[in-house]
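Annex B. Sample input.
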Amino acid sequence: MYNIEIMALRTGQWTFYESLEASRDDVLSHIRLIRCSFPNFSVRAVESDSGQLLRPCDEVTERI
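Annex B, continued. Sample output.
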């Protein structure tokens, strides 16, 4: 399961947006759609078990 979070560039705060149970590729695709709808926000997915981040801009995962 992934928690989708958004961050407004002005505030710098990450905020929970939704939970998503899907494959890594589907989550990345969903994040891209959110970013198209809300271009002024950064979007990431946090894998709930491992804490790994998914971000479509760089396609790199990292731990928080």
